[in-house]
Amino acid sequence: MNKENKVALITGVTGQDGAYLAEFLLEKGYIVHGIKRRTSLFNTDRIDHLYRDQHEKSLRFFLHHGDMTDSSSLTRIIQKTQPDEIYNLAAQSHVAVSFEEPEYTANSDALGALRILEALRILGMEKKTRYYQASTSELYGLVQEIPQKETTPFYPRSPYAVAKLYAYWITVNYREAYGMYACNGILFNHESPIRGETFVTRKITRALARIKLGLQDCLYLGNLDAKRDWGHARDYVEMQWLMLQQEQPEDFVIASGVQYSVRDFVNAAASELGMNISWSGQGVMEKGYDENGKLIVEVDPRYFRPTEVETLLGDATKAKTKLAWQPKTSFQELVSEMVIEDLKAAERDELVKAHGFKYMRYNE
Ligand code: NDP
Ligand code: GDR
């Protein structure tokens, strides 16, 4: 380890993006500090491969207990680690859950960002540390323009998106008020084999792989008509880093520029598994059948949201021009990678079952 190593602090390091970003920054030679929150079960599955025995010399990856709702922990960790760059990825990131836990979502997603920015000011680090805010296409909500770009007006449609709207603007405000290098990445949906299992893409790939092996009967989904612009998380974290390497801080949209419906995603994942789904009915009555006429996809209104974001499609021209950024993974490659990994997991579960162990898992 030498003095040239840059120091990064990642909040949300145990999440999908946190894991990919930590790996990316370690490969670039960074010293990486991550904040994890205390949980009653281990929550470090996604980063265990990066973790080394803390007694080893020349360690470059460290974890600290902290929470976005606890200023004292955030301030202490920032003071101790003295980061050159902070990537604020931690959030209650599930849109549907934000309707159930709106206050907590606001606390962690909106005030959490403020807590970090204020900690930097209190510690006199506002000119030393660069700040990345994980903003989201959910800000566009009820879309005012297609495709959406940096200048498209926001119209958030969930407590999650409203909280993220605050985080977006407080980042802009601290940049303008205190001359901080702070910027927003307005990222459209990005997925991967380590995507949380209750987001729709992973829910689909996991369930169809299990249905294929006879471990599950049916996949229950909400709005099949919702359209999203899906990319690969591995491609998108590179841009999070690029945004902090510019001369001036700016906000960027990151998207693939291609849009598919939830139903399209189901069809693509099924096709990867050699399955073909026929659809019948409409709205809540819509159903999907396999080649043998077996019902395998049903709509369950439980998954409808009080206010839905029907369509998102991003225009990442600014990032492509100014950051020379290009997504590397196509929609088909993304679906294929996710299906392959979930099929392997299902095969492991099948083996466990075949040896007489009961495999029980709550399928949300
Ligand atoms: P995940 O849900 O996979 O990860 C969220 C991370 O935040 C986890 O590490 C989680 O910890 C942590 N976290 C949640 N609440 C707290 C808290 N109170 N204190 C400390 N840590 C907390 O999200 P993604 O990796 O997919 O997304 C990263 C960020 O990007 C999020 O802010 C999300 O809102 C945003 N975003 C994501 C997009 C996407 O498509 N993935 C698109 C646009 C924006 P734990 O592991 O313990 O749950
Ligand atoms: P989203 O992702 O809300 O876009 O937020 P999610 O995968 O949860 O939903 C995408 C769309 O699919 C519809 N849908 C379902 N969604 C879930 N989770 N479960 C279902 O059974 C289901 N059926 C249909 C949803 O209604 C929605 O229209 C994600 C998160 O990562 C946010 O943190 C991030 O900011 C945005 O992407 C960009």
TrEMBL record:
It catalyses: GDP-alpha-D-mannose = GDP-4-dehydro-alpha-D-rhamnose + H2O. Its cofactor is NADP(+). NADP(+) binds at Y131. It comes from the Bacteria. InterPro entries: GDP_Man_deHydtase (IPR006368), NAD(P)-bd_dom (IPR016040), NAD(P)-bd_dom_sf (IPR036291). GO terms for biological process: 'de novo' GDP-L-fucose biosynthetic process. Its EC number is 4.2.1.47. Pfam families: GDP_Man_Dehyd (PF16363). Residues 9-338 form the NAD(P)-binding domain. One of its GO terms (molecular function) is NADP+ binding. Keywords: Lyase, NADP, Nodulation. NCBIfam families: gmd. Belongs to the NAD(P)-dependent epimerase/dehydratase family. GDP-mannose 4,6-dehydratase subfamily. Catalyzes the conversion of GDP-D-mannose to GDP-4-dehydro-6-deoxy-D-mannose. This is GDP-mannose 4,6-dehydratase. It comes from Thalassospira xiamenensis M-5 = DSM 17429. The lineage of its organism: Bacteria, Pseudomonadati, Pseudomonadota, Alphaproteobacteria, Rhodospirillales.
